[in-house]
Write a structure and sequence with these properties.
The complex is a heterodimer. Chain A contains 16 helices and 16 strands. A five-stranded parallel beta sheet of chain A has the order 3-2-1-4-16. In chain A, helix 3 packs across helix 6, helix 7 runs parallel beside helix 16 and helix 11 packs across helix 12. Chain B is built from nine helices and 16 strands. Chain B is an alpha/beta fold. Chain B is globular and about 55 Å long. Chain B starts with a strand and ends in an 8-residue tail after the last helix. A seven-stranded antiparallel beta sheet of chain B has the order 6-1-2-5-4-3-7. Classes of the chains: A alpha/beta, B alpha/beta. At the A-B interface, strand 5 and helix 11 of A face helix 1, strand 7, strand 14, helix 8 and helix 9 of B.
């Protein structure tokens, strides 16, 4: 009979962690991991695997953990997942693998994410490397964008023996793993270690290349000999709420706020040169993971006394992960549900002073299935804030489609690609947020994996 | 890593560098800019491309030492490297075919930013004139280069050491009064100067483009730090600009947003100068 409760994972105390950027969740010890792994009933037809976008052989790696064969467990995970230390931390497992675990019927599902994280961290600490010596194929593939989709696609193509170059616009690889998700959820040394492994596999990297400006896809294919291209440029264009006062000093997009903090390390200013300005009271608009990341980052900055998340629906509709919302509440983030900003008011010299907000009620479900928020007339109120961070979602940038012949896009800007990643232009594949709009890290990785397979088939057929 | 292959001191606060960056040099067009990061703890700062040589693979930047990053950059020498150099970024200058006589108005470190635009127009066969200004003669840089690509150059200095004593806008009024053939204007310089230029050219109803230089982080459209208002709409300078119709730009907002990190910039500079003996030239 399986044990109903999962082994808890140690976390930093909320009172401590609310003023530091160190990782909140501390991970399993070997004994804890073995204990949790032994709860798995090893289904002959595992449903958990189907819930994983990259189909990690979950019962197999868990079985290896129970036998203390951590290296073997790592090899099993790594055979389908390029970035396990990342996925174990940031995947919404409750909607994927763990949702499908049969133990849900009698208690808590197996903590698959925590076990994956344990194995990946064990491998990083003990320098366990995959041994891959593929036959060189001497065909060049360009990966545009060094985020989760691009890194996964690159990893798989390298294992197949292709000559892979990753082009990245920023000065560091990782995409949202580097500039978006904060250190307290995903330590940057983990991301860097995963990237180092790709380089050891033979990945060439050119940072500071904005494809569409520095060089175009057409040039890469026609002048530089790349026979296939994978576009994994994400959805990085921030949406700003179109309300009066949106351009006042002290109003940030979450992308700007998080980039300054995560990529540029502005929380270490003046040791690092990039500044960040926040007042005592910060409002974050939105209810997704990015809003949680921005709110929790703001709380950790010097001088910040109060952070309020303003969300137009109720807690039940929040798209953020349940675990992140819980962490935010524990740390003292305030929530203003069913409220929508209508105006940001400024001081005479152009800084945020306060925000006017209107109460909402929930009406009928909309096309997304969530109940539509409707303004309650006459319910306006004002909250005193000095900093406003807008976390309302992002959309794809049109730089690549607008500078590449024959790549078709959707009306909303996403690149049109079939389930294998094939676009309207021969040899050009795409995946991740650039195709789907803002989604999850693991879905982007799944798309990168799928595209690597399709690129391999395309290049084999091509004479 | 990007090598500094040439360094020239143009005046007490302005320096020029040729940076080895073949991909940027190959794709650059007049009006575009780069973002640089000098070292691993550095910030990303935008600088306009002053010139480029696709054959040599070099890009010329000109910068005024105003804060920590530009002062630190100024201490580097030929043979040194900067960590990151990304570009060319932004849109590029497009002048309507029917324009015939173009006037460039440049101030301070905006002059080298104006230069590649006028050079390109000159090569395309337009008639090109320029009004250049600065505090005093030594602050009016790129005179020789500008004279080589302009049919006529007027000067204005605050102290009268070169050309007319006064602002470029004083000269601009005179020129527009006397020369009715000027049908297109490009202005690059401090925001306040571009604002005043546009005020005048609006009265004369002459189309005027400006090159905005706001604070930036990534320079690829993903953050909106560089946003300004143009004709009432919010635009990201790094993607939609830096070149805009000057008669539609909200310059007051642009100036306010430039002050967003003033206090922090001061802290950073003071700390740097304490540790580096404070090289206070210029002011």
């Amino acid at each position: 009979m399986a044990v109903k409760d999962r082994v808890p994972m140690k976390e930093q105390d909320p009172k401590e962690r609310r003023k530091n950027f160190n990782e909140v969740a501390l991970g399993y010890t070997e004994e804890e991991a073995i204990l949790e792994a032994s709860r798995c009933i090893q289904c002959p037809k595992p449903t958990c695997v189907a819930g994983c976008p990259v189909h990690v052989r979950i019962p197999e790696f868990i079985k290896a953990i129970t036998k203390r064969e951590f290296e073997e467990a790592y090899k099993i995970i790594k055979s389908t997942n390029s970035l396990p230390a990342v996925c174990g931390r940031v995947c919404p497992q409750e909607e994927q693998c763990e949702k499908n675990c049969v133990l849900n019927k009698i208690g808590k599902p197996i903590a698959i994410g925590r076990l994956e994280r344990f194995v990946a961290d064990y491998a990083l600490q003990n320098n366990i490397e995959e041994e891959v010596k593929p036959e060189k194929k001497n065909k060049k593939v360009a990966i545009i964008g060094g985020g989760p989709a691009g890194l996964t696609c690159a990893g798989d193509l390298l294992k197949m023996g292709y000559d892979v170059t990753i082009f990245e616009a920023l000065h560091a690889l990782g995409g949202v793993l580097t500039y978006g998700i904060p250190e307290f959820r995903l330590p940057k040394r983990i991301v860097e270690a995963e990237i180092e492994r790709l380089k050891k596999l033979g990945a060439k990297v050119e940072t500071n290349v904005v494809v569409g400006r520095t060089v175009t896809i057409d040039q890469l294919m026609e002048e530089e000999g790349f026979e296939a291209v994978f576009v994994g440029t994400g959805a990085g264009l921030p949406k700003l709420m179109d309300i009066p006062g949106k351009n006042l000093n002290g109003v940030y997009s979450a992308n700007e706020f998080l980039t300054r903090i995560n990529l540029m390390k502005a929380y270490k200013f003046p040791e690092y040169d990039t500044p960040i300005v926040v007042g005592k009271r910060v409002a974050v608009i939105g209810g997704g993971n990015v809003a949680m990341d921005a709110a929790r980052s703001a709380l950790r900055l010097d001088g910040v006394e109060e952070v309020t998340v303003v969300y137009r629906r109720s807690k039940e509709e929040m798209p953020a992960r349940a675990e992140e919302i819980e962490h935010a509440i524990e740390e003292g983030i305030k929530f203003e549900f069913l409220a929508n900003p209508i105006r940001i008011n400024g001081t005479e010299d152009g800084w945020v002073k306060s925000m006017d907000v209107i109460r909402m009620e929930l009406g009928e479900p909309d096309s997304s299935g969530r109940r539509r928020p409707i303004e309650i007339p006459g319910s306006e109120f004002t909250i005193e804030v000095d900093t406003v961070i807008m976390a309302l979602g992002t959309s794809p940038n049109n730089l690549i489609p607008s500078t590449t012949k024959d790549v078709e896009i959707q009306k909303w800007g996403g690149i049109i690609a079939d389930e294998t990643g094939k676009t309207s232009k021969p040899g050009v594949f795409a995946g991740g947020d650039a195709v789907t709009g803002a989604a999850t890290v693991i879905l982007a990785m799944g798309a990168g994996k799928q595209a690597a397979k399709a690129i391999d088939e395309y290049l084999r057929d091509k004479k | 890593m990007y090598k500094i292959v040439r360094k020239e001191i143009l005046n007490p606060v302005v320096k020029l560098m040729d940076i080895e960056a073949p991909r940027v040099a190959k794709s650059a067009k007049p009006g575009q800019f780069v973002i640089i990061r000098i070292y691993d703890k550095g910030e990303r700062i935008p600088l306009t491309i002053a010139d480029y040589d696709p054959e040599k693979g070099t890009v010329t930047i000109v910068f005024q030492e105003v804060g920590k990053s530009t002062k630190l950059l100024g201490t580097l020498n030929e043979g040194d490297y900067i960590l990151d150099f990304v570009g060319p970024l932004g849109n590029f200058m497009e002048v309507p075919k029917e324009a015939k006589k173009i006037l460039g108005v440049g101030g301070g470190v905006g002059i080298p930013a104006l230069y590649p635009k006028l050079k390109a127009l000159h090569q395309e066969g337009y008639r090109v004139e320029a009004i250049l200004g600065g505090r005093s003669e030594e602050y009016v840089i790129f005179k020789k280069e500008m004279e080589a690509v302009c049919d006529k150059v007027y000067y204005a200095t605050d102290d009268g050491t070169l050309g007319k004593k006064g602002f470029v806008t004083d000269v601009l009024k005179e020129v527009l009064e006397n020369d009715k053939e000027i049908d297109y204007i490009i202005t690059v310089g401090p925001v306040i100067m571009m604002k005043n230029v546009c005020k005048i050219t609006k009265e004369y109803n002459i189309p005027t483009i400006v090159s905005m230089n706001p604070l930036m982080v990534d320079g690829t459209g993903m953050c909106g730090a560089c946003r300004i208002e143009v004709g009432g709409d919010t635009k990201f300078v790094c993607m939609d600009g830096p070149i805009f119709d000057g008669h539609l730009v909200n310059f007051d907002l642009a100036m306010t947003r430039l002050n967003m990190f003033k206090k922090q910039e001061k802290v950073s500079l003071e700390l740097y100068e304490q540790h580096h003996g404070g090289d206070h030239h210029g002011r």
